[in-house]
């Protein structure tokens, strides 16, 4: 995806145009993935035109709570964020890295699976999620070693951003400076306006690939009023954030407070269920399992998502380094909001709020940080 | 020929010790030798002396029935063998055996205890030097008990 | 690093076991030769990920310097499923090898200084390549001291090497065991006890320490007490290494990834973390 400055005023398409956009992308060989209703939740999944979208639905997200509600309009993207992020496509929950075979002479040989990476078109990517992809990109692509399969999937993805028109109850992208308006990292960015009889999308072009696709979709230049109306959508969303996180000096705050009593407090509530790490769009930890077949002659190395909330995660000879829930929560939050900055030059949090929503006991990291900030206890170290 | 005062004054154990105290201790001290295998101290014997090793190596060990004695620490030049002389009932708690020929200064415990009783400044200086020795050995023993290199 | 980045870093090369030698009751030293014929190059202190077919991968340090031209040499202790399978490999067997990974001992940085090696148990294995490279260019260093602690006289790793080094007139070698029978004529006591009587100038020395974390913590404490600056004390950390390339998250130690920022880390960088439990 080539970076290209978004056109100032943009273009306008209608719901038919959106349908046409999805058809064009499918026609170009993309696997088109977008929001869809599954099991009383909005998830990102393969979609088959506008009819697959959660038209007229919104999500109500609060700590430990998620519910779908009917909207009074027919907005296609009238919710905050899906349950899972796009992570599950770029960084699959389970992936065979390589296989090994043992020959009749006992010698082993290794082969890598033929990788024809899925060419994804992601429809309805939020600004926080674009930032999350960039954050994971730093981990997987910009270190001394590159996860080549991840890099190939990300490079091949076509991203249709949709600027948020609703701030969720657990959203805090404004604090993290990751939204709500997508500024870059997309091929096309839409702002949906569904107001009674009127239903249209303002389209901004972010890349040459985006422009080429838009060429095949009926569109008209946006008027100044339409551009202004779209801008107002993002402004309204920005002012309606469900949460806030004061990030001032947060790295030192957390690294200097490893023995803060708040960690004991949160450990009383945390179930170590790992939900937060599964739904987090930047959590990248993985393990590798050895899968053997019954003949014992073939083995697969399967990479799977892992979580710092499990005991196995920190296992060294003799036991787990982090055997208490207190130490595991501290690891997760300190890594996400502080150590990540040392490691990758950016926060690991984009403010999407999923970890708050999907925590079964409603632990809210913005509250945890605020509690430590309110009464920092000079820690022994960093 | 060096005097006992000079010899004691050169020992790091007595570094910074006031000269008059060194002289008091020298009055209780004598040179001694042990061949390899000879015992400096035997468990249960009266703690009549303690030793400042000048050369060689001594092992502190515990004997137990039907098995070979277990060595739990070795002591070399500059180190003290015997701390029980300070603590009633003044009996050696462990065997101390020369694993190499040992040249040492033996200090008569009864003599020094009497001097410490009559001059508490001397007694305090001795305590200040013995307490770190005992704490250091306690720390080392704790780390050995951890068995850090063993299977967990 | 460039070449490494182009290749799929998850995929191992296949090596053949050239020799397998029992070191201790539970430890075996494997010499590995790449089937590709490539001549392994690495720095002392680095590690490989060794793959036992059907079982899995584990991180093991190199235990012989690349300068000795003996391929990859690893001393493996049978401590789990993977290391047990590796320790059971016989000459001619094949296994997967990824690496070398991680930071090395400051062998070049230590030139012109006294070198103090402090090893506990199998911690001597990752230090041996550093000792070999220092002794190969002995004239470039000040006083060289090797302190090794282990459990009992039966658990002394690389006894022949220690004897050979001790015979040299330009190296001080001290070995101490935690407990011993009367057949042992050497030192008994914890390895930290050897530090105060070792010949080194604390202002002009580099210490390389490897062993169980508790041992390293107390060794670092004894070195500080002897007057060494924390920045001149290097430890080799152990954490759960899965990918070895900074992508899987497991080996995090505060902000550091032990696999790529370590395993060898200067004490001043990690002293605070070592003081926090379960970090």
Brief account:
Chain A: Residues 259-291, 340-368 form the 4Fe-4S ferredoxin-type domain. The complex is a heterotrimer of chains A (382), B (152) and C (279). With 152 residues, chain B is of the alpha+beta class.
What's the SSE blueprint?
The complex is a heterotrimer of chains A (382), B (152) and C (279).
Chain A: E1 11-13, H1 15-27, E2 31-38, E3 41-46, E4 57-62, E5 65-70, H2 87-90, E6 94-102, E7 108-111, E8 120-125, H3 127-141, H4 148-156, E9 158-163, H5 173-176, E10 188-195, E11 198-205, H6 208-215, E12 220-221, H7 224-238, H8 250-255, H9 261-269, H10 275-279, E13 286-292, E14 298-305, E15 315-316, E16 319-320, H11 325-344, H12 354-357, H13 365-374
Parallel strand pairs in A: 2-8, 8-9, 9-10
Antiparallel strand pairs in A: 1-11, 1-12, 2-3, 4-5, 6-7, 6-14, 10-11, 13-14, 15-16
Helix pairs in contact in A: 3-4, 9-11
Chain B: H1 4-10, H2 19-26, E1 29-34, E2 39-41, E3 49-55, E4 58-64, E5 67-75, E6 80-81, E7 95-98, E8 102-108, H3 109-118, H4 120-146
Antiparallel strand pairs in B: 1-8, 2-7, 3-6, 3-8, 4-5, 4-7
Chain C: H1 2-6, E1 13-24, E2 27-34, E3 47-52, E4 56-61, E5 72-77, H2 81-87, E6 94-101, E7 114-120, H3 124-136, E8 144-150, H4 159-167, E9 171-177, E10 180-181, E11 187-188, E12 205-210, H5 213-225, E13 233-236, E14 252-253, E15 256-257, E16 264-266, H6 267-274
Parallel strand pairs in C: 7-8, 7-12, 8-9, 9-11, 12-13
Antiparallel strand pairs in C: 1-2, 1-6, 2-5, 3-4, 3-6, 13-16, 14-15
Can you tell me the residue ranges of chain B where pLDDT is under 50 for at least 5 consecutive residues?
A: none
The total strand number of chain A stands at 16
Cross-sheet strand order for the largest sheet of chain A: 3-2-8-9-10-11-1-12
CATH superfamily of chain B: Jelly Rolls
Strand order of the largest sheet of chain B: 1-8-3-6
By CATH, the architecture of chain B is named: Sandwich
CATH class category name of chain B: Mainly Beta
Mean pLDDT of chain B: 93
């Amino acid at each position: 995806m080539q970076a290209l400055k978004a056109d100032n005023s943009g273009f306008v398409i209608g719901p038919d145009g959106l349908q046409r956009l999805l058809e064009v992308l499918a026609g170009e060989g993309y696997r088109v993935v977008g929001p869809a209703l599954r099991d009383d939740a909005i998830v990102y999944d393969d979609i088959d035109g506008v009819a697959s979208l959660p038209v007229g639905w919104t999500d109500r997200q609060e700590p430990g709570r998620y519910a779908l509600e009917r909207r009074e309009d027919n907005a296609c993207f009238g919710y905050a964020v899906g349950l899972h992020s796009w992570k599950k496509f770029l960084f699959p929950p389970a992936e065979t890295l390589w296989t090994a075979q043992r020959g009749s002479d006992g010698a082993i040989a290794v082969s890598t699976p033929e990788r024809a990476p899925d060419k994804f078109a992601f429809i309805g990517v939020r600004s926080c999620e674009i930032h999350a992809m960039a954050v994971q990109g730093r981990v997987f692509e910009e270190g001394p070693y590159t996860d080549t399969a991840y890099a190939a999937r990300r490079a091949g993805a076509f991203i249709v951003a949709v600027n948020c028109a609703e701030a969720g109850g657990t959203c805090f992208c404004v604090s993290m400076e990751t939204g709500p308006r997508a500024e870059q990292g997309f091929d096309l960015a839409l702002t949906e306006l569904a107001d009674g009889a009127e239903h249209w999308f303002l389209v901004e072009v972010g890349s040459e690939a985006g422009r080429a696709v838009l060429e095949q979709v009926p569109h008209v230049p946006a008027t100044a009023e339409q551009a202004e109306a779209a801008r107002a959508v993002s402004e309204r969303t920005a002012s309606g954030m469900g949460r806030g996180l004061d990030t001032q000096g947060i790295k030192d705050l957390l690294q200097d407070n490893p023995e803060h009593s708040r960690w004991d407090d949160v450990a009383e509530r945390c179930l170590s269920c790992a939900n937060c790490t599964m739904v987090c769009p930047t959590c990248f930890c993985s393990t590798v399992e050895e899968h053997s077949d019954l003949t014992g002659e073939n083995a697969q190395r399967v990479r799977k998502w892992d979580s710092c909330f499990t005991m196995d995660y920190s296992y060294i000879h003799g036991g787990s380094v982090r055997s208490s829930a207190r130490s595991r929560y501290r690891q997760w939050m300190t890594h996400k909001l502080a150590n990540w900055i040392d490691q990758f030059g950016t926060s690991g949090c984009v403010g999407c709020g999923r970890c708050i929503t999907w925590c079964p006991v409603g632990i809210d990291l913005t509250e945890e940080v605020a509690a430590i900030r309110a009464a920092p206890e000079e820690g022994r170290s960093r | 020929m060096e005097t006992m005062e000079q010899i004691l004054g050169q020992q790091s154990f007595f570094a910074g010790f006031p000269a008059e105290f060194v002289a008091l201790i020298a009055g209780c001290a004598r040179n001694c030798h042990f061949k390899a295998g000879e015992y400096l101290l035997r468990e249960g014997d009266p703690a009549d002396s303690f030793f400042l090793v000048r050369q060689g190596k001594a092992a502190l060990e515990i004997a137990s029935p039907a098995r070979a004695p277990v060595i739990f620490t070795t002591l070399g030049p500059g180190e003290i063998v015997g701390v029980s002389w300070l603590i009633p009932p003044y009996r050696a708690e462990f065997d101390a055996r020369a694993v190499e020929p040992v040249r040492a200064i033996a200090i008569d415990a009864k003599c020094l205890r009497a001097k410490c009783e009559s001059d508490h400044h001397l007694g305090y200086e001795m305590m200040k030097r013995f307490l770190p020795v005992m704490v250091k050995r306690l720390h080392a023993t704790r780390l050995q008990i951890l068995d850090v290199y063993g299977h967990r | 690093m460039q070449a490494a980045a182009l290749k799929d870093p998850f995929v191992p090369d296949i090596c053949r076991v050239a020799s397998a030698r029992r070191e201790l009751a539970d430890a075996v030293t494997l010499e590995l030769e790449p089937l590709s014929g490539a001549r392994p190059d690495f720095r002392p202190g680095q590690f490989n990920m060794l793959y036992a077919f059907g079982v899995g991968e584990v991180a093991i340090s190199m235990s012989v310097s690349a300068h000795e031209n003996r391929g990859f040499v690893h001393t493996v202790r049978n401590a789990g499923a993977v290391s047990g399978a590796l320790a059971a490999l016989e000459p001619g067997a094949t296994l997967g090898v990824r690496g070398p990974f991680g930071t090395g001992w400051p062998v070049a940085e230590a030139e012109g200084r006294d070198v103090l090696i402090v090893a506990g148990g199998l911690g001597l294995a990752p230090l041996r390549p550093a000792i070999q490279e220092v002794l190969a260019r002995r004239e470039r260093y000040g006083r060289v001291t090797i302190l090794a602690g282990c459990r009992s006289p039966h658990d002394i790793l690389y006894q022949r090497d220690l004897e050979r080094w001790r015979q040299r007139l330009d190296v001080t070698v001290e070995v101490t065991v935690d407990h011993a029978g009367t057949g042992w004529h050497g030192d008994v006591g914890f390895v930290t006890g050897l530090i105060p009587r070792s010949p080194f100038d604390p202002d002009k020395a580099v210490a390389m320490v490897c062993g169980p974390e508790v041992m390293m913590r107390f060794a670092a404490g004894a070195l500080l007490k002897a007057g060494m600056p924390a920045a001149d004390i290097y430890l080799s950390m152990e954490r759960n290494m899965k990918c070895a390339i900074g992508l899987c998250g497991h080996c995090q130690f505060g902000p550091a990834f032990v696999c790529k920022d370590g395993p060898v880390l200067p004490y001043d960088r990690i002293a605070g973390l070592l003081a926090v439990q379960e970090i």
